[in-house]
Amino acid sequence: MEYALVTGADRGLGLGFVRQLLLKGFTVFAGRYASDREGLSELKQQYGERLHMIELNVAVDDSVKEASRLVAIHTDKLDIVINNAAILGDIEASVVDELD
Description:
Elements: E1 3-7, H1 12-23, E2 27-32, H2 38-47, E3 51-55, H3 61-74, E4 80-83, H4 95-99
Parallel strand pairs: 1-2, 1-4, 2-3
């Protein structure tokens, strides 16, 4: 079985990635920020246990840790990670600055 994680999976490109991965037979963990979107719910009805919807705000460390914990309940590996979520913030800051 192959596993994928898609962030920003509520709509647009993220939702499209989720749909295509499900069509290709993946089990997908869909990180969603807005829980009231219909697209993922429709896919959940169609694909059942192959789609796991996870509340995920990539700008909040605790949210990312909880998402990681939830994924680890089902698998110890991810074959594909699509980071489609955006973080609004200081344009002068960088990821490297955050890691230091």
